[in-house]
Design a protein that fits this description.
This protein has 256 residues and is an alpha/beta fold. It has one domain (7-254): TIM Barrel. The protein has twelve helices and eight strands. An eight-stranded parallel barrel has the order 1-2-3-4-5-6-7-8, surrounded by five helices. Strand 1, helix 1 (18-32) and strand 2 form a beta-alpha-beta unit. Helix 1 runs parallel beside helix 2, helix 5 (108-120) packs across helix 7 (141-152) and helix 7 (141-152) packs across helix 9. The structure holds 2-phosphoglycolic acid. The site of 2-phosphoglycolic acid has 13 residues, from strand 8.
Length: 256
């Protein structure tokens, strides 16, 4: 049993209007109640952050955003700053999701700027890393993950590392129903922890939560969450319905 508290984060992506988002989060809050065994985070679209944040008032569920811009303010049309997210009581922000890397050409350097800005502004980054199918098939998985992880965390201090969450999301498993095997996932998670240990030391690396993401569902979660280095999940599809999301929280609670 690890000392790390499990974390289940819902990445709603570009789904739900503000009123649909509130309805979903009200169901989640009602079902989760006051449990504190697992940290729970929901990441709605920007348009629902305020209404979902209000619906979360007094609950144990925390609010996260799906993206952020590194600059504090200025002429960046369509973008959102750390301060704006903090003003809406966001505690977490997903950074470097593969959809942002692919569709919006986000580089490791840009992702790194976001991570540093988030940490500076007391927003916990959930840094996503993961290989494509082609990269896995050509034996590049660990190299790709290493480049993304080290690039994303460049300049992060030891103290700041305790606020960082890493999410390993094999791109070929996202939204495809093709989940990584427990061995595939655990291998990469252990590798990520070994890289963190090399840079930040063993004790610090042991504190970092490494989530798995990619078609995680109540049916496959217990096995994944039972692995030594898998500390929770970043959930897309199964976070859009309260029953499956709450079942994932329960699976995390019973895998402690
Ligand atoms: P999925 O998405 O659970 O729908 O595969 C995970 C993610 O993209 O974070």
């Amino acid at each position: 049993m690890s000392s790390r508290k499990k974390l289940i984060a819902g990445n709603w992506k570009m789904n739900k209007t503000s009123s649909d988002a509130v309805a979903l989060v009200q169901e989640i809050v009602a079902a989760i109640g006051k449990q504190t065994d697992v940290d729970v985070v929901v990441c709605p679209p920007f348009t629902s952050l305020e209404s979902v944040g209000k619906a979360l008032d007094g609950s144990v569920v925390k609010l996260g955003a799906q993206n952020v811009h590194p600059e504090p303010s200025g002429a960046y049309t369509g973008e959102t700053s750390v301060g704006m997210l903090r003003a809406l009581f966001s505690s977490y922000v997903i950074i470097g999701h593969s959809e942002r890397r692919t569709y919006f050409q986000e580089s490791d350097g840009f992702i790194n700027q976001k991570v540093l800005a988030a940490l500076k502004g007391q927003l916990k980054p959930i840094l996503c890393v993961g290989e494509t199918l082609g990269q896995r098939e050509s034996g590049q998985t660990l190299r790709v993950v290493q480049t993304q992880l080290e690039g994303g965390l460049e300049g992060v201090s030891k103290d700041q590392l305790t606020s960082v969450v890493v999410a390993y999301e094999p791109v070929w498993a996202i939204g495809t129903g093709k989940v990584a095997t427990t061995e595939q996932a655990q291998e990469v998670h252990a590798f990520i922890r070994s890289l963190l240990a090399k840079t930040f030391g063993d004790a610090m690396a042991e504190k970092v939560r490494i989530l798995y993401g990619g078609s995680m569902k109540p049916a496959n979660a217990p096995e994944l969450l039972g692995q030594k280095d898998i500390d929770g999940g970043l959930i897309g599809g199964a976070s859009l319905e309260s029953r499956s999301f709450v079942d994932l929280v329960k699976a995390a609670a019973s895998s402690r």
